[in-house]
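Help: read this over?
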Amino acid sequence: MTKRILTWLQATSDQLHIGNYFWSIKSMLDLSQEFPDAEIFLFTAIMHTFTGLHDAEQLKTNVMNSLKLFIACGVDPKHFLIYNPADIPAHAQLNRVFECFTIMGTMERMHSYKEALDKGKKWEIGVGTFCYPILMAADILLYDTDIVPTGKDQKQHVEYARDMAQKFNRMYGETFKVPDTYIKSEVAIIPGIDGRKMSKSYNNYIGLLDDEKTISKKVKQIPTSAQTVEEPKNPDECNVYKICKLFLTPEEDASLRKKYLAWGLSFKDAKDYLYDKIIVFLKPIQEKYAKITDKEIVKLLADNAKKVNVIAQKKIDEVYKKIGFSL
């Protein structure tokens, strides 16, 4: 039976970063090779982004740029079903159903809520942020998803979706497929230039659209130890290496590790090597991105909305009938 794979990227800024690429886009590309006959759903999480971004023009710009970058990074629109969930009414409809099955305590244990609390925003947290995982569960379960590629920090949300599917199935009979997560351990958490998880909210990311000057500045900001050139160094304790290895072949990785463990490698040399690798990686992405027009993206979303609506409406009709909404 054909498998369905689904993932998403938020449009919280006007571009994506290398963390987004390695844990999400590359995971999807790898899965498309592993399951060449799979149906692959890829959406921009515009409804999630709206929890914190209410500037309409900025939201449109962010979404447009992120979708262009999906394609520039190798996502084939002929093989990947790229869509905007705001064009699919069933997302909001299923979200409402799941809200009525979810207790407050469950949402209070979610990372999205706890993270907002940790930032001292207890009295600023919107209901949309609090209920963020519920909408995500609707996004996933609406399409009978088999596999969800995700980062380690998002695993909890997929687990909630699994719980919701099982709970609904117990109450109303087999309705939703229980999805599995797909987490590549080597890219489960991509480090930012400060050592924390790479994130737009931490402003510690290297963007896919950053120019050479910006990348050079960011790479130079990566903190290193006080070890001298003559001293051997542990690559696994160096954030320069942790980021650099994302771009290396196994042979290049082995060579770089050998240099770290020997003597004679300066952190400046390591940073210069990382800079060169990033530039080589980003150049073709940026060139392809520049050739994609807004008109192409608008048409792609309009065409795919028709296809996705058929799938989503069938599922919401089934749900409404079972819970008594369809009289």
Q: What stands out?
A: The chain has two domains: 4-190+293-323, 212-289. The mean pLDDT is 92. Strands lie at 4-9, 39-44, 80-83, 147-149, 180-182.
